[in-house]
Amino acid sequence: MGKELVLPFETIFMQEICLTDEKIRELIKKGRLFWNKGLAPGASGNLSFRKENGFVITSTRAKLSTLSLEDFVEVVRLENRKVWVRGKKLPSSETLLHWEIYKMRKDINAIFHLHDAEVLGKGEKFQIPCTFEEKPEGSYELAQEVVKLLKIEPEISYFILRGHGIVSLGKSIGEANRLVLTYHNIVKGAKKV
Length: 193
Hints:
Elements: E1 10-15, H1 22-36, E2 46-51, E3 54-58, E4 72-79, E5 82-86, H2 95-104, E6 110-114, H3 117-122, H4 140-152, E7 158-161, E8 165-170, H5 173-189
Parallel strand pairs: 1-5
Antiparallel strand pairs: 2-3, 2-6, 3-4, 4-5, 6-8, 7-8
Helix pairs in contact: 2-4
């Protein structure tokens, strides 16, 4: 068994239910695709989509290769590092990151955070926007790094979390997916320097 997970927030379960939504089924398919392409090794990466009053996100330590309906949690409220949810599992450790992006970008309805080694290794060459400092994964500080970047470049839809992974933002699940695959293919297809 791995080390004990300590989330940067307290989770308050409002309802312990299994969520059912067609968009969740769409994310399950995307998760398997990303895992097959090597963009979500192990239990890394998280996917979400906006709802009227919050968002649905993969649970903490969910493996994108084997996602099921029970691996999704609806985040209804976040205040004073307490997260109110509907679902059966703890929300992703990157919930704060997703929360801050949805709060800042009303045009965004889907967020994918993955671990694309190709883009991480060559992103600078392609001038892909990147957060300024490396911060611990899942931390409040990492979420604030993203806030800083989005204040400077408010229209970006794809960027690198320094030393950690990539984030793709879309007006839809399909758009966020296209950005992930487009950047991956461009960077992977580039000749080695």
